[in-house]
Hints:
Blueprint: E1 3-6, H1 14-25, E2 30-32, E3 39-43, H2 47-57, E4 67-69, H3 76-79, H4 85-94, E5 99-104, E6 118-122, H5 127-136, E7 140-144, H6 158-165, E8 171-174, E9 184-187, E10 194-197
Parallel strand pairs: 1-8, 2-8, 4-6, 5-9
Antiparallel strand pairs: 2-3, 3-7, 4-7, 5-6, 9-10
Helix pairs in contact: 1-5
Amino acid sequence: xxxxxxxxxxxxxxxxxxxxxxxxxxxxxxxxxxxxxxxxxxxxxxxxxxxxxxxxxxxxxxxxxxxxxxxxxxxxxxxxxxxxxxxxxxxxxxxxxxxxxxxxxxxxxxxxxxxxxxxxxxxxxxxxxxxxxxxxxxxxxxxxxxxxxxxxxxxxxxxxxxxxxxxxxxxxxxxxxxxxxxxxxxxxxxxxxxxxxxxxxxxxxx
Length: 206
């Protein structure tokens, strides 16, 4: 059964963050808050954990549309081809924030994502998640937690999330109520920005 851990976003406890990172490094799956909906994630370098998430989502790993949560834009060059100034300016305006940007991937992508030409990048405005990624030292792979309910797309109450997911994951973080609007997805891999999904993030950044 998963561990349920309370972390306060305004002042995340170092000990609690270290506990989460230990779970991730050991190949665990963690549910955590972001600046939009709650996410499910694992260490990007752990193949077994990646396979587990793909299985939960019911997709083949090489076809999965997972995004990477980075601590800041300095992580970008690890996985993304060199981008032009205009693209970088959009990223600077928008991040950290409630956006997922699709960018051209480079040859350093983990082997599970080698077939992909693009990668989704998130830098959420949430101290808990950013501190986790910072201490971990590399991005985490993320996917949002959808609800099967036709009316409620995303569960916002961490206790209800724990009830539902406790036997599928290793840790659920209670970071307070989540949002029920997902991130805005913008594809910046082509000649012009393309809005794939309008979500919480405003389009004024374009």
